[in-house]
Amino acid sequence: MEQEQISFEEAMERLETIVGKLENGDVPLETAIELFQEGMKLSQLCGAKLEQVERKIEVLIENENGLHKKPFAGANEDRGE
């Protein structure tokens, strides 16, 4: 399964499996290193996919000049409510 072609959900499932194996601690050192490297790639892939989604999510606000786009406020940002 090529990592760039997998969905966010598939990447997260694989990442959870890798974390479980590493936390279990009974894998040979070389295997643990390979799993860690794969996990890091999956983590970066998930981060990139989340950034793409965040850029796509925009809230349209109507003002006196018509419509303009406002970036979606992230979970850690103040939404002005």
Strand content: 5-15%
Count of individual helical segments: 2
Q: Uncertain spans, ≥5 residues at pLDDT below 50?
A: none
**What is the helix/strand order?**
HHEE
Structural class: alpha+beta
Q: Any idea what the radius of gyration is?
A: 19 Å
* CATH fold group: Helix Hairpins
- CATH architectural type: Orthogonal Bundle
Q: What's the level 1 CATH class?
A: Mainly Alpha
Helix proportion range: 55-70%
Distance between the termini: 43 Å
Principal-axes geometry comes out as rod-shaped
Main sheet: which strands, in order across?
Answer: 1-2
Give average pLDDT, whole number: 79
Give the number of DSSP strands.
2
**Main sheet, how many strands, which sense, barrel?**
2 strands, antiparallel
Estimate nothing, just give the exact number of structural domains: 1
